[in-house]
Amino acid sequence: MTLYLTFQHLREGKLTLEQELPVSPHAAEQLPTKLYLHPGDTISVRSAILGITTRSANDAAVVLAEAISGSETKFAELMNEKARELGMTHTTFRNASGLPNPYQKTTARDMSKLALAILDDYPNYYRFFSATSFRFRGRTIYGHDRLLARYPGVDGMKTGFTDASGFNIVTSAVRYGRRLVGVVMGGKTAASRDRQMISLLNRGFALEQAERLTFAAAKTPTGAEAVREPIANSATARTEDIPSESQWVIQVGGTFRSAYRVKRVLRSAMNSAPAALKDATPIVVKLRHGRYCARFTDVGRDHAVQACSALRSLKFTCIAYEEPAAGRNIASQTE
Prior knowledge:
Elements: H1 2-11, E1 20-22, H2 25-28, E2 42-44, H3 45-55, H4 58-69, H5 72-85, H6 108-121, E3 133-136, E4 139-142, H7 147-150, E5 154-162, E6 166-175, E7 178-187, H8 190-218, E8 225-228, E9 237-239, E10 247-256, H9 259-272, E11 281-286, E12 292-299, H10 301-313, E13 318-323, E14 332-334
Helix pairs in contact: 1-4, 3-4, 4-5
């Protein structure tokens, strides 16, 4: 949540990534893990963010909290307001770092809501969660998240540990054009926590792939309804058989809570990389459980790969994948 609120202030122009923030005695005295900042030091917003995403640096978290709200206590109040807004009904924050406090609590479900909110609301800053190390004052700070290198498809999120809560992790991974977010709390060791996350992801992706293949073979609706982006202001709906030759899909961002957010992402991508997406068709895809994703279709392999490369260079989260021919008549589209 400290990072979510930091990203909000960056987007609103209240902070900049290169801005130097002062380190207070309260921030410097935080327990490890930390960057071992000293009172009177300064640290850039960028380094503070990377210190948190890679190392769970408690002193960096307090520096950001004090820069945003003036004190960690007031920042915790802001955290709780945002938690209620995001539907985190079983979470109470008392500090910016997650260090033990008898009145501080959360659940795996609430952490998944926060992870999805970051993916939805701040895709341009999600890249910080994929960092495995960064340079800070002449030394390399290495991260704790081994799944970034170990599990194919993992592109970020966050680890955590305290004696009270055990070893915890939130992981986001993409396969088959779908993103899964997993949460494991209370692991006895980092290794056992990671094994449990791998098991969760394997099971989740196996279910996704089985459903995808089953629906494609049966040529029936998957529960995912693709709707042409209303840039073309559609009115009538029809089921469309798409030619069987190989086609690719470009997916931008993760999953979103509303079609409106997806439309904004599609427009932003088209405005940012008009040449790369010139011949692609933007669609809003409605997934199961009421979530949505942003995709571009009607592209070949080279076009998809090049477009994704262009979007990534502009700090978009993007994946390109081949859509099985047998499954291309499953979408209901409006024009």
